[in-house]
Design a protein that fits this description.
The relative contact order is 0.24. With 286 residues, the protein is mainly β. Strands 3, 4, 5, 6, 7, 8, 9, 10, 11 and 20 form a ten-stranded mixed sheet that branches. Strands 12-19-13-16-17-18-14-15 form an eight-stranded antiparallel sheet, sandwiched between helices. Strands 1-2 form a two-stranded antiparallel sheet. The chain has one domain: 60s Ribosomal Protein L30, Chain: A, CATH 3.30.1330.80. It is built from five helices and 20 strands. Strand 17 and strand 18 form a beta hairpin. Bound molecules: zinc ion. The site of zinc ion has 5 residues, from strand 17. This is Ester hydrolase C11orf54 homolog isoform X2. It comes from Erinaceus europaeus. Pfam families: DUF1907 (PF08925). InterPro entries: C11orf54_DUF1907 (IPR015021). Monomer.
């Protein structure tokens, strides 16, 4: 699939009949907002963010933002997985929100994927987010194609560990987008209600989450860092959406023999750590 078609799937805003961005190049940044400690053991509902303001904080007003985070429960009224695809506001352009969110369908426990702007306004997200920001310019990117998984690690972990092996102590962060072109992947969606009893370990969290197997084609929004230089970073976080009603948080593919990936990535020039939790823990990072 050529890059043009991938961009079409990613950045064409049907409501506005406009391109959100022509690419993922120019002044690239990774931003990590908040963290899992604002979700677990219990939610901290004060932790909401405005991505137009975040774009200014990372010195890139008008940034084109992709990534993975928790949905803006303060506007939605429930918890969800969030797939930000946002052209933030600048002097020259009004902001456009092309994001998706996935929630657990209250009727049948299935996946319910919606385009955020179809019913909701604003540019929020909440609790935690891993973002890749750029000027949204066309330009040179790193193309990665992979098929037939032979090891245990997922696509993103393979790239992250390869980079860590090469660069060692020097942290390198990347973002962009990849397609699962063939096969199926294991995903999760957080329940619409935050847990009222504390979730204190991975086992508690896994009982709380809803797990799914989702089918290609899936558009994924990865952000990853080869190693943590001491900012309590989430090393990798990938959310995905589709045009057939499926979306959520990517774990790994479940069809090693038939899976096919096609991705476009860029390293980030800067990393911004925003609202880092003072008290932290290590569970709920899968
Ligand atoms: Zn997630």
């Amino acid at each position: 699939m050529p890059f043009g078609e991938l961009q079409l799937r990613l950045g064409w805003d049907t409501a506005m009949s406009t391109w959100l961005a022509a690419g993922i190049c120019g002044k690239t940044r990774i931003a990590e907002l908040g963290g899992v400690p604002y979700l677990l053991p219990l939610v901290n509902k004060k932790k909401v963010y405005d991505l137009n303001k975040i774009a200014k904080e990372i010195k890139l007003p008008g940034a084109f933002i992709l990534g993975a985070g928790a949905g803006p429960f303060h506007t939605l009224g429930f918890n969800s997985e969030f797939m930000p695809v946002i052209q933030t506001e600048s002097e020259h352009k009004a902001p456009v929100n092309g994001s998706y969110f996935a929630r657990v369908n209250p009727a049948d426990g299935g996946c319910q994927l919606e385009k955020y702007s179809s019913k909701y306004r604003g540019f929020g997200c909440a609790l935690l987010a891993n973002l890749f920001a750029s000027e949204g310019q066309p330009g040179k990117v790193i193309e990665v194609k992979a098929k037939r998984r032979t090891g245990e690690l997922n696509f993103v972990t393979c790239m992250r560990q390869t980079i860590e092996n090469h660069y060692g102590d020097k942290p390198v962060g990347m973002g962009g987008t990849f397609l699962v072109q063939k096969g199926k992947v294991k995903t999760h969606i957080m329940p619409a209600e935050f847990s009222s009893c504390p979730l204190n370990c991975d086992e508690d969290v896994n009982k709380w989450l809803h797990f799914y197997e989702m089918t290609a084609p899936l558009v994924c929004l990865p952000v990853f860092v080869s190693r943590d230089p001491g900012f309590d970073l989430r090393l990798e976080h990938t959310h995905l959406f589709s045009h057939h009603g499926e979306g959520g948080h990517y774990h790994y593919d479940t069809t090693p023999d038939s899976v096919e990936y096609l991705g476009y990535f860029l390293p980030a020039e800067f990393l911004y750590r925003i609202d880092q939790p003072k008290e932290t823990h290590s569970f709920g990072r899968d």
